[in-house]
Amino acid sequence: AQSVAQPEDQVNVAEGNPLTVKCTYSVSGNPYLFWYVQYPNRGLQFLLKYITGDNLVKGSYGFEAEFNKSQTSFHLKKPSALVSDSALYFCAVRDSSGDTGRRALTFGSGTRLQVQP
Amino acid sequence: NAGVTQTPKFQVLKTGQSMTLQCAQDMNHEYMSWYRQDPGMGLRLIHYSVGAGITDQGEVPNGYNVSRSTTEDFPLRLLSAAPSQTSVYFCASSYRAYSRTTLNQETQYFGPGTRLLVL
Asked: Is A105–B106 a contact, with Cβ atoms under 8 angstroms apart?
């Protein structure tokens, strides 16, 4: 079974400060990891993913995430937060050793990021 | 490309009514899926399809049916709506990676969602 934990329901940060949204995962094989962002009344937008290769992954809108296999983490980061980054962020995982046909993503419960001006 | 489209955007049903949520994609993606989003629970997989004519159950399939007669369309049917099916429904699609060299194509793209209220 695969699972994702996002331990913080909400993260508050001042504009211009660095932000981190935490994610830890559990899979039996190697993980494929994703971050999605959801703005109010909108669908999920893909931010970035880790499939293989460099542990530091750069994505859209200046976001990046670091894959840490020993800590089973994939925290989302940004050096300088913007008010427009305020949204709901989801971490998701898929076990690479599972049935590739199923392609099922397991999502975390989401973290609401609030960036104050 | 329109990407992944969903209709309707919002629907109110009475308990016991049936309806079909529509999903279409114009990216020639083999893989399509339906998720439901409930507060504090993230997204949960309802059904998925790896190609036309092939469907299978996800994590929470009860009360829902799907079919995949074309590559483009993947409708979700509620047979007899219940208040527990009040949720936001998202459709997603992606390429199907056949080898490690195509793994980077497997990002799932989501539609804008259908908000369903069952009274």
From this structure: no
